[in-house]
Design goal:
- By secondary structure, the protein is of the alpha+beta class.
- It has 2 domains: 189 residues, 3-Layer(aba) Sandwich (Aminopeptidase), CATH 3.40.630.30; 82 residues, no CATH class.
- The chain is 35% helix and 26% strand.
- The protein contains 8 helices and 12 strands.
- The chain has a 7-stranded mixed sheet, with helices on both faces. The protein has a 5-stranded mixed sheet with strand order 9-8-10-12-11.
- A hairpin with a 2-residue loop joins strand 2 and strand 3.
- Helix 7 packs antiparallel against helix 8.
- The longest helix has 20 residues.
- The two termini are 22 Å apart.
């Protein structure tokens, strides 16, 4: 594990340099309060339901858990918070990672996740889990393609009503990702060579959920070895412009993707064009 941890640390340093940030662990109260304020600016949550509080972050770090920040000079532009799971499982759960809107597109999130991976490997952790909204195309691509994560579970309305600027009043369905830190596909992704499933080259793939000319979901068939599941291009904008259509997408994706995930282990990637590419009985290589 020592060799893997060293390689992971080098990959994390390279990712930070490429993003133009410095990523470091945070424990002091002023730094933790800056994380709270950063998340408040990103999500603009209901004041009674913030993603974290400064007090919670203080307790997590005192317990040896992971809180890290990405700095552009002296400005905090991203942060990640994770805590340990059951000791026997050697797993950590990443609760929340956020990047300031002004720093999106710079791979700050990638730098934070690679720092988190290196931090976890040094402490004997073998896997990190986290959740994301399956309708958010950019996050699906980031988690499944760029990081090499694997879909483990579909979680309907996992958090209940979050009532923030990003989720609105939508149901909080989530996909649980498992990131096996020493898996070959994860090592390759962290080195900058991720697997990239291509929906257009998926051969005899069937479309389980497509889109019509108006951008609405169209159910299809799941009877095939490779299955494609579409999501809207920008569900966050759609929630503002057509909340009814956004809710239709939520139900349609849940009805198709949830049973596919429940079938068990499979290769689940994400194509940049906005498709989950699911191959039964295979892994991406």
């Amino acid at each position: 594990m020592t060799g893997i941890a060293e390689t992971a640390a080098h990959a994390a340093e390279a990712a930070s340099r490429a993003a133009g940030v410095r990523v470091r662990d945070l424990t002091d109260l002023p730094d933790l309060d800056a994380v709270y304020r950063l998340y408040d600016d990103i999500w603009r949550p209901d004041p009674t339901n913030p993603p974290v509080t400064t007090e919670l972050l203080r307790a997590l770090t005192k317990g040896g858990n992971h809180v890290a920040g990405a700095y552009d000079g002296t400005t905090l532009v991203g942060a990640s918070v994770a805590f340990f799971g059951p000791p026997a499982d050697r797993v950590m759960h990443s609760h929340v990672t956020g990047v300031a809107p002004t720093s999106l597109g710079r791979d700050v999130g990638f730098a934070l996740k690679l720092h988190q991976r290196a931090w976890a490997l040094r402490r004997g952790v073998t896997a990190i889990t986290w959740t994301f909204d399956p309708l958010v195309s950019r996050n699906a691509y980031f988690n499944l393609a760029k990081l090499g994560g694997a879909v483990a579970e579909y979680l309907p309305d996992f958090y209940g009503g979050m009532r923030d600027a990003i989720n609105g009043d939508d149901a909080t369905d989530r996909l649980l990702v498992r990131w096996d830190l020493a898996a070959p596909e994860v090592e390759a992704a962290c080195a900058g060579s991720p697997a990239r499933p291509d929906a257009e080259r998926a051969g005899a793939a069937v479309v389980a959920l497509g889109r019509d000319e108006r951008g609405a979901p169209v159910p299809g068939s799941t009877d095939g070895g490779t299955v494609l599941v579409a999501v809207p291009p920008d569900v966050t904008a759609l929630r503002r412009t057509d909340p009814g259509l956004a809710r239709r997408w939520r139900v349609a994706v849940r009805e198709v993707l949830s049973p596919l995930v429940a079938e068990g282990p499979r290769a689940t990637g994400f194509d940049r064009a906005g498709w989950y590419v699911i191959s039964r009985g295979e892994r991406w290589s």
